[in-house]
Amino acid sequence: MTDDSRPTILDDTEIALLLRKGDRGGLRALLEVHGGRIAGVIGSRFGCRVDTNQVLADAAIKVWKHASTFDDRRRTLRAWFTQIAVRCALDIIAAQRSTDDHKSFSEIGDVDHEYDPADTGTWLAHNGTELSHDPRQKQRETALREIVEQLPPSQKVVIEADLAAGGVSADGAELARRLGVPAGTIRVRRNRARKSIRREMIRRGLYSEEGDS
Amino acid sequence: MSDNMDKFWDNVSNELRRALHLRPLNADEAEQACKEASDVPLNRDQIEAIVASATGAGSDPEPTPGPVDFGSNSEVEDEMLVLNRNAARKTPEVQRRLDELRRKLLEDDDDPQPQD
């Protein structure tokens, strides 16, 4: 079903109003109107790495708890919900044990003083956006994806957890628990994976020893 | 891990995050991602399960600043939601009733506080 054919009765302003009032009908309407598209975003970005239903459920909890922080002057309701859902997916991939907002989001490295579950804070200011159309950059990113894709699955899951955690080392204990291996095994896999990525990037001319990536 | 490896990871991790889509989105990116994504409609059971999970988690939403009357519009909103659920059977009468309810909902919110 496309956006055009969907029977949208409540608009975003009305949905936001209900959410702010703590009316669960607002959450239901949000999922009816935008849930399908956001499920599509999660599926296309993260594939089988996360359970879309779990991501939506986690995101819905944050929307419900923080509805008063939504500001329609800064973004659309759909964008807000999408940002929250993406961050919930990252938390799952990063094996963040806690569902506490501040802990998990601060570990991503971009929490604001005034908490906003969708805010990307300073991270994006320092690291650019995805909306670049530079073909060389796109080509380079494709090569990087290939390199990570070639890792053994047992190493790839650790690297993806690290990246989802903000590039730092993800929670090794939680990863070990989830994968059913000793914590030391996670460290070994992480080191091997990083060495493999570095070796392959150098081989492809994507990274030099001087660190000029 | 050696200094070389640490330096390498510091240099490339953000780029890898972007390449693998393992980073948060800003509002423009989120909007663009929605436009490009396919629609995977949720069925009623999924929606109800998510709503029950989120609203029954024992955590009330943050209070809205300023006076909010949680009770005055509940009947109106309940009726709107019933009509919303019956959207596939929308008739002129349903549409007329929706418009009327929507007007009432907005008017009630704009009402000034009663003076003593």
How does the major sheet of chain A shape up?
A: none
Range of helix content of chain A: 55-70%
Main beta sheet of chain B: strand number and arrangement? none
Structurally, how many domains make up the residues of chain A? 2
| SS summary, helix count of chain A | 10
Uncertain segments of chain B? 66-76, 111-116
Proportion in helices of chain B:
55-70%
Give the integer mean of the pLDDT values of chain A: 82
Instruction: List low-pLDDT spans of chain A.
Output: 1-6, 97-115, 121-127
The 3D shape of chain A can be described as elongated
CATH architecture assignment of the largest domain in chain A: Orthogonal Bundle
State the CATH class of the largest domain in chain A.
Answer: Mainly Alpha
N- to C-terminal distance of chain B: 72 Å
What's the β-strand tally of chain A?
0
Instruction: Tell me what portion of residues of chain A adopts beta-strand conformation.
Output: under 5%
What is the number of helical segments of chain B per DSSP (H or I, 4+ residues)? 5
By secondary-structure content and strand pairing, the structural class of chain A works out as: mainly alpha
Question: How widely separated are the two ends of chain A?
Answer: 43 Å
Shape assignment of chain B = elongated
Describe this structure in words.
The complex is a heterodimer of chains A (213) and B (116). Chain A has helices at 12-20, 24-46, 52-65, 77-93, 101-108, 123-127, 135-149, 153-164, 172-179, 183-203. Chain A is mainly α and 213 residues long. Chain A has two domains: 12-127, Orthogonal Bundle (Rna Polymerase Sigma Factor, Chain: A); 135-203, Winged helix-like DNA-binding domain superfamily/Winged helix DNA-binding domain (Arc Repressor Mutant, subunit A). Chain A is elongated and about 55 Å long. Among the domains of chain B are: 1-37, no CATH class; 73-110. Chain B is elongated. Chain B has five helices and no strands. Chain B has helices at 3-19, 27-36, 44-55, 74-85, 92-110. With 116 residues, chain B is mainly α. The interface between A and B is large, with 92 and 72 residues.
